[in-house]
């Protein structure tokens, strides 16, 4: 098995934790994993992307253009920014919620939610588009959005893992006092995906 996964979001959304969980799941299965992170402005709201390459020692941790199998987009514009990394038949789970950048809020730029969503839909082989924030809030914490999206991705069958493998990896990567909320968020995401299949 070989898989290249891109996770894209903004600072504070938990993209790096999601990457760590997927890497842990792969290592527990005995697979070779390489990861790479790009942290934009190194602040909350800055661009963040993670590349996870599973199953081969002969690859760079950075996914070349047109080589990613899967995109998990935590934020719409950041997901659109990663489209050039995807294979033509790639799969994606994209959170359709828009986070308006500071420059746009200050009226120094523009943000086109509809255009970003249209570009993503036109360039994805198999796509799922959800508003994950309400599920995270219902699970108990808006910060669990990353785990909702992981659950949805596993439930939709676009990640090379079973639900149990991700839940076990979560136990290694998430503080015990936060596990209950995150288990619920994962389950809600997985159930939402099964309803869309």
Give a description of the structure.
The protein has a single domain (3-196), classed as Pyruvate-ferredoxin Oxidoreductase, domain 3 (3-Layer(aba) Sandwich). The model has no long low-confidence stretch (mean pLDDT 93). α2 links the parallel β4 and β5 (86-95). It is globular. α5 (133-139) packs across α6 (145-155) and α7 (163-173) runs antiparallel to α8. It has 8 helices and 6 strands, in the order βαβββαβααβαααα. It has a 6-stranded mixed sheet, sandwiched between helices. 45% of the residues are buried. The protein is an alpha/beta fold and 197 residues long. The protein is 42% helix and 22% strand.
Strand content bin: 15-25%
Our Rg estimate from Cα atoms comes to 16 Å
Q: Uncertain regions: pLDDT < 50 for 5+ in a row? A: none
Described by the principal axes of the CA atoms, the overall outline is globular
| CATH class identity | Alpha Beta
The largest pleated sheet is described as: 6 strands, mixed
Structural class: alpha/beta
**What's the total number of strands?**
6
Instruction: Count the DSSP helices.
Output: 8
Q: What is the end-to-end distance?
A: 24 Å
What are the SSEs and their pairings?
Elements (H helix, E strand, L loop, with lengths): L2 E8 L4 H14 L4 E7 L7 E8 L13 E6 L2 H6 L4 E10 L6 H4 L7 H11 L2 E5 L2 H7 L5 H11 L7 H11 L5 H18 L1
Parallel strand pairs: 1-4, 4-5, 5-6
Antiparallel strand pairs: 1-3, 2-3
Helix pairs in contact: 1-7, 5-6, 5-8, 6-8, 7-8
């Amino acid at each position: 098995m070989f898989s290249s996964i891109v996770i894209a979001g903004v600072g504070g959304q938990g993209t790096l934790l999601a990457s760590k969980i997927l890497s842990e799941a792969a290592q527990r299965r005995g697979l070779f994993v390489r990861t790479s992170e790009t942290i934009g402005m190194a602040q909350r709201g800055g661009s963040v992307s993670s590349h996870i390459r599973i199953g081969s020692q002969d690859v760079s941790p950075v996914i070349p253009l047109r080589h990613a199998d899967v995109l998990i987009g935590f934020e719409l514009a950041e997901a659109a920014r990663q489209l050039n990394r995807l294979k033509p038949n790639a799969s994606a789970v994209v959170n359709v919620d828009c986070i308006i950048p500071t420059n746009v809020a200050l009226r120094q730029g523009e943000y086109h939610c509809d255009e970003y969503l249209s570009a993503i839909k036109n360039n994805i082989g198999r796509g799922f588009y959800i508003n994950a924030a309400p599920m995270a809030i219902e699970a108990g914490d808006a910060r669990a959005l990353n785990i909702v999206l992981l659950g949805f991705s596993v439930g939709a069958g676009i990640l090379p893992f079973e639900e149990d493998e991700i839940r076990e990896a979560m136990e290694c990567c998430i503080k015990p006092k936060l596990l209950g909320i995150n288990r619920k968020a994962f389950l809600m995401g997985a159930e939402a995906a099964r309803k869309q299949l």
